[in-house]
Input
Amino acid sequence: MASRKTAQIRVGIGGWTFEPWRGVFYPDDLTQKRELEYASRKLTTIEINGTFYGSQKPETFMKWRDETPEGFVFSLKAPRFATNRRVLAEAGESVERFFKSGVMELGDKLGPINWQFAGTKQFDPDDFGAFLDLLPKKIEGTTIRHAVEVRHESFRDEAFIALVRKHGVAVVMAGDSKYPQIADVTAPFVYARIMGTEEKHKDGYAKQSLDLWAERARAWAAGGQPDGLETSGAKPAKETKRDVFLYVISGFKTHNPAAAMALIGRVAD
Output
C-alpha cells in the first residue's frame, strides 16, 4: 500500500459483472470470464459487493488477485451478518469468520473493508465502540484498513467522530445521495462513494461535477478537507497525505465506468 509520502488516489466502481456494461464498457467480443481482467486495467480499484451477502472461497480471492495487475486494489464489503444485528458487540464470530474466509489471499491487493450499516441503525456509543474493538488492526503482518458506512442521522455527532478517530477507522463519505453526508476525515485514508450519475451525461456526470470530485480527491490526498461537504462539526483532522478510494456507485449504473475513467484521467493530470 502507498506510504504517506506517496498517497494515491484510486477510483473505481462496484463490482464488474453488470449486463448493461457489455457493449458499452466492455467490448462486444469480450468473454464474460475476462471482464475482471479488462475492468482492472481501465480502473484502479473495485469494491466487491458479493462479500456482503455471503462468504467466498480462498480460491476465489486468489483468482481475483491473479487476474488483476500490480498496484490494483479491491475494497470489500464486509458481511451483513456482522453489521445487521441489534447488538453489534456480539459480532465477533462473524468478523473472525470473514477474515478466515480467504480474504488475506488478496495480499497487497487487499484494500479497505467497508462495514455497511442499515439506515435504521442508530448511534449507540458503547455498542458501536465495542464493535470497533472487534475489528483487527493487523492480520499476518498486514495492516487492515476499516471504513464504516453509517446511514442514520444520529451518527452526525462529534462523539462518533472522536470514537472512530480513536480507532483509525474511516467514515464512508456519501456523495450525491439520499444518505447523510459525514465528510469528517478520521483515518489515514479517505473512502468516498458518489452516487449521482445520470443517463443524460455520457460520462455519468457533467464536466463541472467531474472536475469538482477530482478536485476534492486531490485535496483529500494532500491532507486537506474539501469545501462544500457536510461534516459533524468536529475539529478537522491534522493535515497529512492520505490514500483516497473513490467509488462511483448506484445512480445511472450503466455510465459508472465512464465516470470512473473520466475521474482517473483528471486526478492523473
